[in-house]
Specification:
Elements: H1 4-20, E1 27-31, H2 35-38, E2 46-50, H3 56-70, E3 74-77, H4 82-90, E4 95-98, H5 110-119, H6 136-148, E5 157-160, H7 173-187, E6 190-193, H8 200-209
Parallel strand pairs: 1-2, 3-4, 5-6
Helix pairs in contact: 1-5, 3-4, 7-8
GO molecular function, one term: ADP-heptose-lipopolysaccharide heptosyltransferase activity
Pfam families: Glyco_transf_9
Protein name: Lipopolysaccharide heptosyltransferase family protein
C-alpha cells in the first residue's frame, strides 16, 4: 500500500482475510513511510516495508528476497500496480492472485473490487465498515494539539485534509467547503482544516469558500 487512502480502503479486505485464515500468519507489504499507520492494525502478524525513496531496482530486489524467504502459501495483490504485480511474481508464493486496476468497471467502489477478488479464492466478505488505528504517541499528540488550541470542549470535531499526493486526486476547494458546511450544520460539529506548507493555499481556499467559520 502506498497511500493513506489505499490503507484505509484495504482494511475491510484485510479483516476478511484474517477472519477466513484465522489460524494462519498474515503479512502486509507497505511503503516505509506508512509504517506508523499500519503497525497498530490487529489483523496483521508481520509488516514488510519497501522504501520508495531508494533506488527502484535495488529496493525491488531487496524486498523480493525478503518475500521469498517467507515461502508464502498465498500472495494477494490488492493494489494492482506494476511494482506490486512484479513483487507478487517475484515473491515465490505458492498461489498468487491479483488484478489490474482497469479490470473492473469504472464506477465500482474500491472495497467492492477487493471483495470481488477475494471471492475468487472462496473468501466471502460483506463487512464494508472502515477502521483506522493510531499509535498511543499519535493519540497523545492529537490530545495535546486540541488542548493547545482550546478545542477540548466536548463538541464533535470533524477534520478535513483537502490535499493529496497528486493534483489529479485533489477535489475542488468549493466541494470541500460545501461538505464541511453540511457536516458542521448536520452534526453541530467544529470543522478543523489541516494541511502543511504545500496545502496552505488550498486550505485557505476551502476556508474562504465556506459559509460557516472553520
Amino acid at each position: 500500500m502506498t497511500s493513506l487512502g489505499d490503507i484505509i480502503l484495504t482494511l475491510p479486505a484485510i479483516r476478511a482475510i484474517r477472519q477466513h485464515f484465522s489460524l494462519h500468519r498474515v503479512t502486509m507489504l507497505t511503503s516505509l513511510e506508512y509504517i506508523d499507520l499500519v503497525s497498530e492494525i490487529p489483523y496483521l502478524d508481520e509488516i514488510i516495508t519497501f522504501d520508495r525513496r531508494g533506488e527502484e531496482l535495488t529496493e525491488t530486489i531487496r524486498v523480493a528476497r525478503r518475500l521469498r524467504k517467507r515461502k508464502f502459501d498465498l500472495v494477494i495483490d490488492l493494489h494492482g500496480k506494476f511494482r506490486t504485480r512484479l513483487l507478487s511474481r517475484l515473491s515465490g508464493g505458492r498461489q498468487r492472485i491479483g488484478s489490474r486496476r482497469d479490470a473492473y468497471p469504472p464506477n465500482t467502489h474500491t472495497i467492492d473490487d477487493h471483495f470481488q477478488l477475494l471471492s475468487t479464492i472462496g473468501i466471502q466478505a460483506n463487512d464494508r465498515s472502515l477502521e483506522f488505528y493510531v499509535t498511543t504517541a499519535n493519540q497523545c499528540f492529537a490530545h495535546e494539539l486540541l488542548s493547545e488550541k482550546l478545542l477540548l470542549d466536548g463538541q464533535l470535531k470533524i477534520g478535513i485534509f483537502p490535499g493529496a499526493a497528486w493534483d489529479y486526486k485533489c477535489w475542488p476547494a468549493d466541494r470541500f467547503a460545501e461538505v464541511a458546511d453540511r457536516m458542521g450544520k448536520q452534526y453541530n460539529a467544529a470543522i478543523l482544516l489541516f494541511g502543511g506548507p504545500a496545502e496552505a493555499k488550498l486550505v485557505n481556499q476551502v476556508r474562504d469558500s465556506m459559509q460557516t467559520d472553520p
